[in-house]
């Protein structure tokens, strides 16, 4: 393969069509998009522009919703040694939009042990400052405080462990190895960890829907084997591509390589500089660009407009056309994006100041959070495949 | 090998001398026994009769004690679908004796998830009635209620998980596989489980001493690799042989095969019948036995006298001599044992009636238990091998 996609490593040039086949997920078709639009009363730009491009059982989620069975949302963020970058917000923004449109409960896992077990950091203590900051970043987005539960594994494990034991009992090492590519040097903690990541899909007796990047699919492929055996729903997934890093199309945004990403805690002025240095689809000279036009399809700046910085489809199309016809040069286009990114960061950092109280509500005091601190797992009769 | 010894399976005829070599543990020498006797002010029959026959670092435990650093005790019992039998009490009786002699804290783990993860039972619920009963059986033995903490994994996991993550991160799959013989069909839960069983060895910054049957050694062999990396002591072990079942020398006492074992919840009269049917070292006829004498070395009845039912060495020697010389026939010898077993069960079952309150103290309210519910794991600087 020209690429490798696991929850711990995404390498090489991603062929998304091929990934759909390899992972056995489904493409989001125009028909499905129309169904989402009519059920939700709108379509988030990340959906209508195909950044969320694949799914499992999304049509069943819509049916559950329409027929009154409801569903719930689940996503998460594993704290690492680096701060979150703008790309990390995407599954949360998608999740928040879904929560608003469908009014459903949302569970946000903070697996504060995962990076340590995966040997990406040298101690649990190393991620500790990030745990708090990541939670605040998420809380600042404005989820419904009574319908959202944010929990960190080392704190909520007391409630989750029994469910994790049930899940773990149903996953053989050979299966886990095939799905995740575990090796001899893999820690026994990382081998167990998938059981924990599956637990929140058992928080309710409804279908879970997980908005996440496609590299997380292996966990939920396993979930779909196990959950029916415990009498719970197979999870549905809404799967995104990866955000391009600033250095070029198809590159990764990595918080540990600062030149590739805009960090959420970055000085807005630093962010401006990074955007002005970003890789574009521009030509060698202004003259040439006026003559041949730019190439939005390989332009990181255009990519970012489509994802987070131009909500208006008409304006986005105008920008694309102006670029392709050589009327819009990279300089002003980048400056405009830099300005928007700067405003975005300033706004986010302002909201962060009020996030502490929100986080507390979603972790401990809010309606859903209070309920979850009394949650107890009980296995049910196995479900028929459904 | 003619035998197989893992924590989940003990098969074949055990060659204890060979086990000492294979496991790399040390034999308990007469010199070491003398040191225990002089430090403890006595020797438990299970020690002086060699049923606890091997160890790791026991001389270091004695040194720690003598030099004021102290040590602590740790043992446990995994609830299964069957009740506990008399043999299961042995590590606890040894532990209790050590606690009395040395006045040290004692931790008793009830891994209520282990049998389920090991696929020995089909649900967690299946062991639930036994969890309670096992705890009462242990509590009834009369440990120091302020120096003993009994905890079940699914309940105490909130306090243990962080430590388990640290341990798990330091155990690679290849090591765990080599130690436990994990296979493709092993559940990922059982692969993680050794990390949990190791956690109580990190409850104090002292040397842990674990009285247990030698099949548990693999867990603690791993512990001895990992603990110094986390700044904690390598565990010491006091290792026993296996109790013979009623059907013959070298057979297993198995609670799931009722004819092989005396269960703690058995009707005393049933126990009497089982003893009267036990395999002995007697001869084909009384006449022959009077002439040739019996063979205590292959006699289950004699074996049981040595372990639990004759504390007085002189009387035991007299019994052996009377048997060997043909003066004592199997009938009266068995009847006497049956009577003692019956009294033992009646006494134990009487004590069980008052065990509930003791159990509560050792699980929740007693001095050590109260402290442990606030325990928090903190890794330390790695220790030099010590």
Characterization of the model:
Two copies of one chain form a homodimer. Chain A is α/β, with parallel strands linked by helices. The first copy, chain A, has two domains: 3-242, Rossmann fold, CATH 3.40.50; 258-352, Tyrosyl-Transfer RNA Synthetase (Orthogonal Bundle), CATH 1.10.240.10. Chain A contains 18 helices and nine strands. Chain A has helices at 16-23, 30-40, 45-48, 58-66, 90-102, 114-117, 124-139, 153-169, 173-180, 188-198, 217-226, 268-276, 286-292, 300-309, 313-324, 330-352, 355-365, 367-372; strands at residues 3-6, 9-12, 26-27, 52-56, 71-76, 106-110, 148-152, 207-213, 236-240. In chain A, the strands form two sheets. A seven-stranded mixed beta sheet of chain A has the order 3-4-9-8-5-6-7. A two-stranded antiparallel sheet of chain A has the order 1-2. In chain A, α7 (124-139) packs across α17 (355-365) and α14 (300-309) runs parallel beside α16. The longest helix of chain A has 23 residues, at 330-352. The two termini of chain A are 33 Å apart. The mean pLDDT of chain A is 95.
Structure in a nutshell:
Two copies of one chain form a homodimer. Chain A is α/β, with parallel strands linked by helices.
User: What's the CATH class of the largest domain in chain A, please?
Assistant: Alpha Beta
Would you list the SSEs of chain A in sequence order as H and E?
A: EEHEHHEHEHEHHEHHHEHEHHHHHHH
**Most extensive contact:** A-B, 38 and 37 residues
Taking pLDDT < 50 over at least 5 consecutive residues as the criterion, the unreliable ranges of chain A are none
Specify Rg of chain A, calculated over alpha carbons: 21 Å
Helix proportion range of chain A: 40-55%
- The total tally of domains of chain A equals 2
CATH second-level architecture of the largest domain in chain A: 3-Layer(aba) Sandwich
How does the overall form of chain A come out from the CA principal axes? globular
How many helical elements of chain A?
18
Strand content of chain A: 5-15%
Structural class of chain A: alpha/beta
Major β-sheet profile of chain A: 7 strands, mixed
Question: Which strand order spans the largest sheet of chain A, edge to edge or round the barrel?
Answer: 3-4-9-8-5-6-7
